[in-house]
Amino acid sequence: MTRQRIIAGNWKMYKSIAEAVSFVNELGHKSLPAEVAIYLAVPFTAIAEASTAAQGLPIRIGGQNMNDASEGAFTGEVAGKMLVDAGARFVVLGHSERRHLFNETSEFINRKVKQALAVGLEPLVCIGENLHERESGQMERVLTALILESLQGLASSDVRRVILAYEPVWAIGTGRPASCEQAEEAHRLCREVVAREWGSEVADVLPILYGGSVRPDNAKELLAQPDIDGLLVGGASLKVDSFYQILDYQT
Ligand code: PGA
Fold it and tell me: What percentage of the chain exceeds 90 in pLDDT?
């Protein structure tokens, strides 16, 4: 089964508009691997200019969050169609920082996923267990619940438009990535959950990315695992050099 190889950068709350544009220009001048789809989740303020800079390049620009409503009196929130208007093609939803620091529930994320699909954004949905859950043997239960709740009510045709990211909370920003075996085990489990709920045809084509302390020195090994289709990279996506080394993992 050939699934799309995706390497996504998540810039979080970093970079000015000028920095975002110069990153895209610099990356765009490099020889980019044809088999990898490159995604960059940039701050809201940089989406429009980064999208313009990415025109004609194999780089998709996206947002890191959105609201579940199409519009309304929600001060400070951003609607999915506003992201589309600015040039975004995908949106990260349910990142552990949103779930834990901003108390977003899977129910809320599920509504955002539906709204993203409704406006034509590709949802990149993040799930992952925390250290306590892993150490107390609850990983399988937690991942299953996060997938079923976050994607609840979606038809198989909708799930085909989703990208899943397995990001163990204990590995994010800690410099302590999951081992290849740990990551592969979790990815296989996620794929089985999707197969049970939406059918194996959907599970077989669903890209599942690994995220959490991905660096140039562990990217290749992670990508060699059969169920790891791509990577979601935080810290190492902020510099062109380290992000490019991850993209260029085959050389
Ligand atoms: P990290 O972040 O690569 O800095 O661990 C990953 C993420 O939060 O998506």
Answer: 98
Q: Is the pTM of this model over 0.90?
A: yes
> Which amino acid would we find at residue 35?
E
- Secondary structure element (H or E) that encloses residue 211, with its range: strand 208-211
CA atoms of 152 and 131, how far apart (whole Å):
25
Q: For ligand 1, atom 2, which residue shows the shortest CA distance?
A: 234
pLDDT of 1 > 70? The answer is no
Catalytic positions, written as ranges: 95, 167
Q: What are the residues whose beta carbons fall under 8 Å from the beta carbon of 231, sequence distance 6 or more?
A: 6, 7, 8, 209, 210, 211, 214, 219, 222, 223, 246
Query: Quick check: 127 and 106 in contact, CB under 8 A?
Result: no
- Give the closest residue to 222 by CA, choosing from 237, 209, 235: 209
Q: What confidence tens digit (pLDDT) does each residue in 72-100 have? A: 999 999 999 999 999 999 999 999 999 99
Distance 183 CA to ligand 1 centre (A): 14
Tokens 């929600």 sit on residue: 74
Residue 15 to residue 1: CA distance in whole angstroms: 37
For ligand 1, atom 7, name the residue with the nearest CA: 234
CA distance 94 to 65: 8
Beta bridge pairs of residue 61: 40
For ligand 1, the distance from its centroid to the CA atom of residue 238, given in whole angstroms, is 11
Q: Quote the tokens at residue 31.
A: 């020889």
- Looking at residue 97, what is its pLDDT? 98
Residue 250: the pLDDT is 83
